[in-house]
User: What shape does this take?
Amino acid sequence: MIVVKDGIVNQPQAVATDAGFLGGLVQAADAYVDALLTADDGGVAALPHRAAMSRLLALATVYTEPASAHRGAPELPAAMAACVARLEHLQGPTGLFDGTNLSSPPDSAFTINDACMALEIIGAAGDGGVDDGGADGGLADVRRRLRAVVGRITDALVTGGVHTPNHRWELCAALARIRALQEREGRPRPEISERIGQWLAEGIDQLPDGMYSERSPLYATAVTNPSLLAIADYAGRPELLEHVRGNLAAFLPWFNADGSTESLFSRRQDQWFTFNGEAFQLLYRRLANQDGRADFAAAAAWLQQFPLLEPAKALARTRLDPWLGLELPAAPDGGLPPVMAPARAALASSGIHRFRSAGNVVTVYGGCDELVPGVVSGLSSNPTFLRLAHGGAVLTDVRLSRSFFDLGPFRSQSVSVGSDPGAGAGTVRLSEEQQANFYLPLPADKHREDGVYTLGHEGRFSASMDFGHRPTVEHRLATAITVHPAAGAGGDAVELELDFDGADTSFALELTFRPGGGLTGVAGPAVVPSGAAGGGAFQLTAGTGSYRVGDDVIEFGPGIAADPDNPPVYNPGEAYRYLAGTNATDGVRVYITGRTRGTHRFTLRGRSLPS
Assistant: This one.
């Protein structure tokens, strides 16, 4: 039985279910559980609380699923009981769980959301006459003990705090699900609704372009959007769906043909890796069916070709959400549907722009945060400012490194968009100015007899120097990069202009290509100083180079003659190197080096060769 939830604006009517989607989902969930049961991972006793609960939810879902090969499997109740025992063992005196964050209400809330889903599925199965293993064991015992786990933690979730924006909504989602359980049991606690109201009264952290404040596809799909949906459904807050709609609409143009989603602008850890867009599939599917939106339906249908990474949990969500199992339009043929591939797209408050022409997909990024506290979690700091894809040939990262007081690579401090009438697309101008000081003697009235001055940080380093009271000799380097995203005949090229003003020093333009292709026209491996980042890369010292994958080619150049004073090396900056760290790219790297004098122009051209 599907539990009808408060707050869904329109309950599904007599619409056909999507048998193909549901059948494939059950098969994938069965395969996922097969892998869980046969994995040599140390068993349940080695699992942290979230993994133990995730396993329990997967097992409960297939055990009670009529179409599953694991339906009623006699070995599964004991496996579920072992997961509950692990949760009981890990649960602290307040009911909270420990992990990276000790006694964390939001981290515990992830586990409790899954626990409530499992309780709802097990309860619905029992209500429907499914054999629960008897009153003294099986699902009845699992249900009783799991319900006790939820009961022991409820007070801590009501009174507890958070430390990231998305945690608020994960915590509210868990409280909303607990509230629904209590209502079914006839003993709701009013303070739960009051606490949800307190968090929601802060307002949802949604930027004008539809992104949430963390600008992260990972957290949008794993936390914020699913949580807002749960709060809307279980706590009777349908107005929250508007935030989910806005976020999903904003993401539509940012999918790539391989199923990944652009994450360069994120303020969280996904700014550093390729994000798998399959996580959006059920979100688009839910609101496509509820709202009748053709754009979301096209996105959901297209994404269905990519395997879900957690199919058992997806099956659980589909069991509990009546909108997810409804039939969608047929998947579009070929590549991205038009609604996901506009000629131009932008997220203004995230500082990112995308252009499509002549088979090229050009992404220009200039929305890094000011790194006043340094490179830390919660800030956007990825120095990649350009990406170019042409079919299978993908230039994943273009970065600019300069030898300027070890302050690190170019990170745009401002973004402006202008017109480019000749190319039919806008130009994007990125700019940054860096300063570094030498410090002169302290004024006499600031001297201390003991010679010991306050320890302070001046932007590059820390010392007991009383920096704030010293006269300075300032050095500066201003850098501007103008991107013409659709230059050349038919808009098949991207032109870069690098303009420098200030210090005369070396620069290295780094081009990183996705592995799997062949390079021509370059010298290499590049000669790189011992211990420097970028070893084993190549250098373009003259003319034009090319990178080919199948029939797809990206050409780049012109090169600049090698000079030992302009090393082909990427410098992540002292903030990384002091700790022996790096943010170097992975892939095939090519460097073009020169001096920060005047203007340098480069062309990147994507084209397809005749088969």
